[in-house]
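This part of the workshop introduces the protein records we will be handling. A record pairs a protein's sequence with a compact description of its fold. As an example, a complete record with its sequence and its structure tokens follows.

_____
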Amino acid sequence: MICPSYAGAPLHRATIRATIFLAIAVCCLTVDRSARAAPIPEETTADQDDPLAGESEAIFVRRIEPLLREKCFGCHGADPDSVEGELDLTQPNLAMAGGESGEAAIIAGRPEESSLYLVMTRTNDDWSAMPPKEAEAITAKQLADVRRWIETGAVWPSPERAQEIEKENAERWSVEDGILVKTSGGLDAAWTNRRYQPESLWGYQPVVRPQITGAAINPIDELIEAAMPKGLPAAEPADRRTLIRRATFDLTGLPPTPDEVEAFVQNSLPDDEAVAKLVDRLLDSPHYGERMAQHWLDVVRYADSSGFANDYHRGGAWRYRDYVIRSFNNDKPFDQFALEQIAGDEWKPNDPEMLIAVGFLRMGPWELTGMEVAKVARQRFLDDVTNSVGETFLAHSLQCAKCHDHKFDPVPTRDYYGIQAVFKTTQLADRRAERLASESTDGFDQVRHLAERRAAYQAILQDLDQVLLDNAIDWYNEHGLDDSKWREVVAEISRGRKSGVFNAARGRIRKGLQEGQYPPKLVGFTPQQFGLERVARKGLQALAFEEDTFKPYALSIYNGHTPDVKSIYAPFRVPSDPMKGELEQGHILTGGDPFSPGEAVQPGVLSILENLLESPIPNSVGGRRLAFARWVTNADNPLTTRTIANRVWMWHFGKPIAGNPNNFGSTGKRPTHPELLDFLASTLVENGWSLKSLHRLIMTSEAYRRSSSHPDASKLAELDPNGTSYAAFAPRRLTAEEIRDAMLSMSGELNPTQGGVPCRPEINLEVALQPRQVMGTFAAAWQPNPLPEDRHRRSIYACRLRGLADPAHEVFNLPGPDFSAEQRDQSNVTPQVFALLNSERSNKRALALAHRCLQETDTDRQAIERCFQLVYGRSASDQEIRLLVDHLVLIEKQLPDVPQPFKPQPTEIRREAVEENTGEQFSFVEVLHSNAEFVPDLSPTEVDRHTRAFADLCLAILNSNEFIYVY
């Protein structure tokens, strides 16, 4: 740890002295050092009558030894054969003596002369800063402890005496320094014996149901009132129009219809009963599952493609999405919902739905190409699934313990790899899972467009095959070789196939011949032909994944040995022998490196909660995940119950009780209302893990039903600056999906069909047609569904490609699917204005809304009233009608006689690229087959000037805060 400064820093005086007396024998230096250093004892014992000595040995046990172990032993003594600077800090006699500098590292009573202290200050010109990395520098408090220890005599007690000191002070130190936590143990004793502040361990404590006095009708209100800042009044209840809009968007993601609004407003039942009936109706809606699934898919990172270089389609992923929707609609108990996603295939191996449910384990981005080491790709999956399970169900980012023991939480690296060992026999595959009666097959006719694309690729390869056959004959002639055998082989193969003849013939004739005696691969190709061959060949590879969308396969997993597979360029099925391959063993990986296995580990759980494990997790190939899932879903597991209760609360109030839904650790925000969180968690379990019961409880509370307008805004800002009192309801902006779905619903264009294969809405045309490189070729352009009813389905059903985000959704904070989104952001940025006001999507919805309003009414005043009812759920005031009628007259006069149509969908697009074999440019025409059948939405050219003017009015209404926000 202690060494001279380098890189231009001043040399230590001992180094200068050594240079001057270089001619003197080494023994003289030894005599000089021994003359300056006093004899060093093996350890020092405090004088029992000396209070400073007693303080010194206590500081050593409590502060100094753990600090040296954490910061210094790694380089100075942990490995006796590699002690840097010849300074060993693991034993008192060696530490006191110092290292290669020749000076004592610790001089009792004199910290300013003790090099151990000076290097830690990082400000002394004579000594290099230690630890070397700035990020690992000791804190000011730790530096003060080192100084005080040396000042008081630098007493270094024996191990026996240190144990006595710990025992004598255990109770007091636990209060002051925190408590010890029992885990499976860290990589070193310092971590294992680390202390934690009790309040940072709140997530691991048993859920305790608080005492409810009955002071309020709803226990939620009693608990919130108890924590309300003194002197802060609560807002009045929201009016019924506001409340039904809030509740309907929250539970369905759609606006209430005008009839639903009026029925609720006119309901003669008392508010409590009317609200209860409203909530029950919404919970029974099939759109409830769609809305809740959108929340869940954010967390699990749902996408319809694999990401990375190829971004292959995941043909069966949509079946997992529909499984989630069904589960919410059926109010599947959450413990069962969680178990099915972790180990459904082990729980009910013959149930196709369970093969679909474990698609959760496959949600992260992943691929295996020939350019990657298979073991690295395999480890990437294991790391991904370990962390995903932790974040999703336990609110723990376990990846922080991948390379070292967790720096803040009681999660040792051993636990991380113990949990990872649960998944060591989990293998990836697209498994056959027969169609369920509840699964929709709507949209399956889209497969014909894939067939058209396949035929086009095959035609290209067939033409190129003939080119190669012709070039091969030319090659034989150019090289003066006999081509009779070649012609014979080609003729024979051609009788049984129409394409791939050249490669088949080449493969047969090359046997027994040397290179140069048979035609080379892709013989005689031009840059254009090289490029076309790659586009077609790679296109067919990608198409195989996309075609799985319409086959009875699920994105799934199976138990077995890890197969010896170097690359995956086609959907991977379960091998005929799942036990062929490597049976991976659990190990702690040094630095997270799969090629540096360390200590062996058995499948396990978080050891801080190991007492909840009903029985040890087996080390057999099968059954590991089921045992682990039973631990996760144990009713006494405080992490699981609090995690989902916290998420559900956030889905209604926009903010969680515990500020980081994916992180209940020390670095996450602690609960603002811990008793409320425990009440929700315990109530969830008591009600059979029913999420609908939890929604019902939350939404019938006064806290949820409050107005967003507070009677004393200044006092609210003063007493509740962070908005955590729930004295008023916090308005929220609609999500990207809610904006699109609501517009379609209001315009009458929304197709409410449930489930089925992904749809393809129209997106920005430039983005849809942009050249998207995937593994050395072009991905197919985005082509919307030809029919409006197919592309105007709810946003949750839209095909979601990792490599191609919808900019209209992205600008409104749709999270990327590569990382778990614990909570949606709500930014307010300028590009949102352009997306909502200027985009073709918004203008199409505005035109359709205008057409609907005018068709359903007789006058402009009535049409405006209808528009307000559809968009806002209320009537327009007389003043609003006058202003809008005046605007309508004005804008109609300003409109051109000939309207500008919306952009048409092209039927082909020319691509240009540099061919990698020759470095020369080539081009090809991508035919957009489905666009040839595209049926456009209502166009400005199909309506009169008055409708176009009214569309301008509707566009303004759709850009208002009253539409965009839920109050």
Q: What stands out?
A: The longest strand covers residues 426-432. Residues 468 and 523 are 6 Å apart (CA to CA). The two ends are 60 Å apart (CA to CA). Confidence is low (pLDDT under 50) at residues 1-41.
